[in-house]
Amino acid sequence: MIRWLLWLLAGALLGGIVHLVAVLILPRTATQDAYTRLSPIAPVNTVAAVPQPSPQNEAMPFMDPAFATAVCRYDISERPLKLTAPVIAAYTSVSFYTRRGVAYYAINDRAAGRRVIELDLMTSAQRAQLPEDEEVTAADRLIVESPTATGLILLRTLAPEPGLMPVAHGALEKATCRLLEQQQPAPAR
Q1: Residue 125 domain-assigned?
Q2: How do strand 116-122 and strand 143-145 relate by DSSP bridges?
């Protein structure tokens, strides 16, 4: 009896280890992640509209048809990026993801408190190179630090009624995602 219990325990332990390894490795080896799926429709450092989902075709899984969606695949290895997204009355959100799909920042129209969500996206090294300007406060300039040089920015606007979907799409068409101009280094004191 004890021998069978040991075999069952060993089998359950081995199965648990195999399961854990599979769960941890599969996301890194998947070939059809969001970044890859969106590359045909979204050029790098440009906002591109994601087609509305239909029962036969979805660019990404679990898309809500009540939202208009746009995406910016970014590459900030050379310079920081400036994102501007107009806000509509219903709801607007901007979410940031690494190349592997890990969410690291999100903001919505309520938190922004403005008519436009405007922010700079940069790596920690690029942020450290920013000149310290006493006249510009943190409230004047929202800076988001990306843990990776490449990733996705997902912009979504809500159309509470189907007839308001053109308004939601119109707001996303005005969104921009572009690299910042080269910054001059701070003068030595």
Answers
A1: yes
A2: parallel
